[in-house]
Amino acid sequence: MDMQSSPTAAPASTLCIDGARLWQSLMDLARIGGTPKGGVCRLALTELDRQGRDLFVQWAREAGCSIRVDAIGNIFARRAGQDEALPPVMTGSHIDTQPTGGKFDGNYGVLAGLEVVRTLNAAGIRTRAPIEVAVWTNEEGSRFVPVMMGSGVFAGAFTLEHALAQRDAQGVSVGEALAAIGYAGESGPAHAVGAYFEAHIEQGPVLEKHQRVIGVVQAALGQRWYDVTVQGMEAHAGPTPMELRRDALLAASRIVAEVNRIAVERMPHARGTVGSLEVFPNSRNVIPGRVKFSVDLRAPDDAQLQDMDAALRAACARIAAECQVQAEVEQVVYFPPQPFTPHLVQAVRAGAAELGYSSMDAVSGAGHDAVYVARVAPAAMIFVPCADGISHNEIEDAEPAHLEAGCNVLLRAMLAQAEIAA
Ligand SMILES: [Zn+2]
């Protein structure tokens, strides 16, 4: 890859993070729950999660941070500022993974934050505002639903009681799992945050395709998830002539094509996906009587998302009439689009430019802890490329130079907000 990513792009006088130290920390953390294929399996609130948390806490303490754990298990490592009355400039992400997860998703954002602290320590720099590194509980939502649980509680998206009561497939609740690993912390209102930055691998192919090192994230896409049920009539595949069928799968397949068209007509940022489909009775010689499938629509602004919703419902009604079936559309999840804070987005853009890294504006198609934090504090995100845009996969990979670049941008953006003490 011929990306402009060398740390030597930065002027000699500029404070820079230690890319090798960051990489070593990523590799050390990845050993906890490491899989034979080179990935990581460290599900939220398991014994392995505890080991990962303990290692982070040990590193943060060694770097002079004080540690606070809240009631949903979020960890806040704090580097004191000159003016402790100021709200902290925060960064962070998550260290839980998917069952076949990678080394970088989430872990990068947490360890980039730790690397910022270590860099400030090594340079003897004191900031006016405190610096905090957050480890958010259960971002992935693999063991416990909902996803982005810790940041969601922090931002008031749902209550602590609701989160603690959720159970995994074995019937263990979040509250029980937190207590078992020793991370059920103190309850109390979420503390104020002056600014929040999250560095994350892109989890998509856009930066790599455009050969850019830094993604300046403008917003997270809004999401509407649906269950669609098409009801037709089962009948024998042989004796039933074509014009007398009420084929639920035929109707469903035409709706699937419409979902794709609805998004394609709104490129580049709109998305439309049918990822799951169940056919009843799913038998070779029976005309399908009922089909249930998921629809996932995403867009950067609410007007467009609403427009896509209307287009989906219109397509379902029209195709149902043409196929003589019923189509029921039920929205099951809604995440509003979340724009990030303009002056922090600008700080990321300026940081990349000053350091000589190639960059481009980006949107986040996935949910991140920053999306919830943005509801209660100024927030922005920094994306770096990952190999082939692949994540949630053991083969997830990233270039050390890109991770280093993103961390340097993070350092610069955080310093601009926290200010170097006189
Ligand atoms: Zn993540």
UniProtKB/TrEMBL annotation:
Binding site for Zn(2+) 2: D105, E140, H392
Residues at which Zn(2+) 1 binds: H94, D105, H200
GO molecular function (one): metal ion binding
Keyword Zinc attached: yes
Keywords, comma-separated and alphabetical: Hydrolase, Metal-binding, Zinc
Cofactor mode of binding and number, as noted: Binds 2 Zn(2+) ions per subunit.
InterPro entries registered for this protein in UniProt: Amidase_Cbmase, Bact_exopeptidase_dim_dom, Peptidase_M20, Peptidase_M20_dimer
Domain Peptidase M20 dimerisation as annotated: residue spans: 222-320
Family note: Belongs to the peptidase M20 family.
Record protein name field: Zn-dependent hydrolase
